[in-house]
Amino acid sequence: LIDLKTLRESITSPGLLLALYIILSVFTAVQQYWKTQQVDERYTRYNNYVIFKQSHFHLLEGKELYEAHPDEHWDLFKYTPTFALFYGILAYLPDAMGLMLWNLINALVLFFGIRMLPELSPGRKAFICLFILVELATSLQNLQSNPLISGLIITGFALSEKRNYLLATLLIVFAAYIKVYSLLALVLFLFHPGKVRLAAYILLWMLVL
Prior knowledge:
This protein is mostly helical.
């Protein structure tokens, strides 16, 4: 007979969950790379990635970030110039490689953020990783930044609980410079001492970014 306890521990082991997140990231990237949008054959299924990628070049070339560029992609860029600048890490790669790396960044930042959560048993962390799997797959298929945003906020929270405020504030402010609603996560710091120092760190990273 199968030992159910051993089976449960195997399914929820960090190594297996990490492998699952990596496989899901690569699979969804490959899936989208080989498809085209049904509405118009000019555009790829990974239109969101193209928007992010081209925003980097538009920024460097001094073009308007927030107007339509129908010769390159459909829909509009709705993020910050900071995000466009940092996307240069991926923008110069071939699309197939960039797609996989973008999905891996999203999934792994979220995965390790959950693994860093304090005062949770390994089993509960594993449950969280499995519980969000369907939503994660949907975001990865659409090449969205939602897993990255969530991962940055969760990791920022975990670091703040360890009193690593300098890095914690950087991650949450960086998340806000991708999507502004992430600023709401700054209320977490209201429950920590040294609010003047925390405010200084937040202001520092806002100015830098």
